[in-house]
Each structure stands twice: as C-alpha cells, then as structure tokens.
C-alpha cells in the first residue's frame, strides 16, 4: 500500500514538472517577444523630447546620459546605442547621450609661457576647444603670449564654461622696425592703446600710491622717442619699452623728461646755474679765482720781456734777435729750457 502510494506521488510530481516545463518553454515567445523585432530609428541630432516620444511610441525603454559640446544645441541627442538601423526586439533599452542645457564651469588653466604644442595638450585635457591662432612679434618665438576668451584676456584660475572656445596669441620673433612713440605725459590707457597698435610690449614700473591705474600718467620711458640730436629712435616690433608711471606727476617733472636736445640743454643750464650759486656762496672759491687771475696777468707781463730778450708779439715783428755783449765780448747765453723752467 505504501509502495503504491509512493509511486503514485512520484508520478504526480513528474507530471506536474513536465507541465511546468511545457508551459515555461511555450511562454518564452511571449516573455521575450520572440519574432517581434524592429529597427532602431535615427535619433542623433534630434531634440531630447522628440527622441523620447519616438522611442516610447515604438515600445522602447530609454536611459539618458549627458555631456557638453559647445557648438551643439542644448538637449540635442549626440550619441545613441544601438546605432541607427540595428535590428532589436521591441522593449529593448536604448541609451542616449544628450548635450547639456547649461555647461558646467571649470578653472582656466595657465597656458602663457608654454609652447604651442604643450598648450594644445593642456586644452584637450580640460576639454577646451581651440579657437583662432594669432601671431604677434615678440622675442619669445613660438611661446604662448596670451589666452583669449570671447576676444578678451582670461587669467589662469578664472571660471570658464566647459568646452569653451579659447584663442591663443603666439610669439613670432622680432621683425620690422617702428618709430619709438613719445608716451611721456599720456595716461596709461592712452599709452596702452598706442603700444598695442605698434605691437610693442610695455614693462611697467609704478611709482608712489596708485588710485586709478588707467588714468595714471607716464612720466619717463626708455628708450625715448628721440635722442639728444633730435633723431627719431627706432625699435623692433614686439620689443620692450620701460615705462615709469605715477598717479599725478608735476608738470615740471613731465617737461624735464621730454626727450631730445632741449632736455640735454636744460641739464647743462641747470649745471651752470648750480655752479654759479655755489661760487657766489663760497668766499674761498672766489679768492682762488682772483688769485688765479692775478697769476695769469703776472705771467703775461713776464712773457713780454724776459731779461733783455724781447719776445715778439706777432710774426711781423720776427727778426734776428739783438744779442747784448758782455765785457768779454761774448754773447749772453740764455737757455730756452732755463727760461721755460723759471716761469713754469
């Protein structure tokens, strides 16, 4: 009895197992959508909302990621997986990568001083896009002189949108000469414009307290616009001009530093005036000058007659010298060296 019951139960289990397996394998077509296939539509370039609507209408599931490309529209579909035209089952998950609506910000790297090749590598690592390459005469040929964002200089560390376009200014060495401009008396904002137009570089030294740098005045420069002979100085494009700038220099200081021969003459006049003031206030120097004048007068009188030998004053009076004879009828001997030594 027990043996018969055990065999019966085992038979029932076997029948149930066969039924479950049959049901499972017959339902696979329904569970896996077997035979229900479709092509993946083209989604790249479409707006995200439009792409989602298309996929949902075809029974696809959607998973979205994002990145940022500056020259693409916000929320534009950039990539899709699977690719366009792939045969997939209905209900398959489609992966989309869309462009961000607002770009994230990063800190601008410092590219100034790097070679052009190294600057490109740094920009790629920061996901920045290379813009225009501008060349400017400078002694540092091939080096990055400036980094520009939207036409303006951007300093290292300033926030910049991810994927932004950055232009680089590259040195091309020194070439071509230009006349040195006269910047003395100009405001720094005016001098800066002139130097930029002439492609020259300023080396600035600030003097005293500066409250408004753009309106501070240039009171000295090197090299100067003209030399002491009033000839125009010339300089290579890209070369340096040293500028000394003060907030409010006096008009006398600006006039004194104006270039050319007037500056040199002014220095000579100042020296003569200083000497005359010193002589007038120093009695010792005055007495020395009087003594010197007396000595010159005495020497002049002695030079007219030396002993009994008359020195001619002009070539017309040149004649044979009259020699006075002594008692032994021998001429007096006067050595030129002796005379010279006596009155030296």
DSSP strand (E) fraction?
A: 25-35%
The first-level CATH class name of the domain at 178-271: Alpha Beta
H/E series, N to C? Answer: HEHEEEEEHEEEEEEHEEEEHHHEEH
**Total helix count?**
8
What is CATH's topology name of the domain at 178-271? Trypsin Inhibitor V, Chain A
Describe the structure.
- The protein has 344 residues and is an alpha+beta fold.
- Helices cover 34% and strands 25% of the residues.
- The chain has 8 helices and 18 strands.
- A hairpin with a 2-residue loop joins strand 8 (144-149) and strand 9 (152-153).
For this entry, give a set of tags:
Trypsin Inhibitor V, Chain A; 344 residues; disordered C terminus; 4-stranded mixed sheet; 3-stranded mixed sheet; 8 helices; rod-shaped; alpha+beta
List the helices and strands and how they pair.
Elements: H1 2-31, E1 37-39, H2 48-57, E2 61-67, E3 77-81, E4 87-89, E5 93-99, E6 105-107, H3 116-125, E7 129-136, E8 144-149, E9 152-153, E10 159-161, E11 165-171, E12 175-179, H4 188-197, E13 201-207, E14 217-222, E15 234-237, E16 240-246, H5 251-256, H6 261-281, H7 283-304, E17 305-306, E18 309-310, H8 336-342
Parallel strand pairs: 2-5, 7-11, 13-16
Antiparallel strand pairs: 1-4, 3-5, 6-10, 8-9, 8-11, 12-15, 14-16, 17-18
């Amino acid at each position: 009895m027990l043996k018969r019951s055990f065999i019966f139960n085992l038979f029932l289990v076997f029948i149930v197992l066969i039924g479950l397996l049959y049901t499972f394998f017959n339902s696979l077509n329904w569970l896996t959508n077997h035979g229900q296939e479709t092509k993946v539509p083209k989604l790249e370039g479409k707006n995200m909302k439009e792409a989602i609507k298309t996929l949902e209408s075809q029974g696809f599931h959607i998973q979205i990621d994002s990145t940022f490309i500056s020259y693409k529209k916000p929320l534009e579909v950039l990539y899709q997986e699977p690719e366009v035209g792939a045969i997939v089952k209905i209900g398959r998950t489609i992966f989309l990568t869309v462009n961000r609506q607002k770009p994230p910000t990063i800190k601008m790297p410092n590219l100034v001083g790097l070679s052009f090749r190294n600057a490109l590598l740094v920009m790629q690592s920061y996901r920045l896009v290379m813009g225009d390459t501008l060349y400017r005469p400078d002694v540092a040929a091939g080096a990055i002189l400036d980094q520009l964002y939207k036409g303006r200089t951007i300093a290292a560390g300033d926030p910049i949108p991810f994927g932004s376009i950055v232009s680089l200014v590259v040195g091309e060495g020194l070439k071509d000469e230009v006349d040195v401009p006269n910047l003395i008396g100009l405001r720094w904002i005016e001098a800066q414009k002139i130097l930029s137009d002439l492609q020259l570089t300023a080396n600035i030294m600030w003097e005293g307290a500066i409250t408004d740098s753009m309106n501070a005045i240039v009171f000295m420069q090197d090299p100067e616009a003209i030399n002491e002979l009033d000839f125009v100085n010339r300089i290579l494009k890209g070369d340096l001009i040293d500028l000394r700038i003060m907030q409010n220099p006096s008009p006398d200081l600006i006039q004194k530093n104006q270039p050319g021969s007037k500056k040199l003459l002014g220095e000579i006049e100042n020296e003569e005036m200083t000497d005359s003031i010193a002589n007038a206030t120093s009695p010792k120097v005055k007495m020395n000058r009087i003594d010197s004048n007396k000595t010159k007068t005495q020497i002049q009188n002695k030079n007219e007659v030396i002993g009994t030998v008359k020195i001619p004053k002009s070539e017309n009076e040149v004649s044979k010298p009259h020699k006075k004879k002594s008692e032994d009828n021998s001429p007096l001997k006067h050595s030129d060296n002796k005379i010279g030594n006596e009155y030296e």
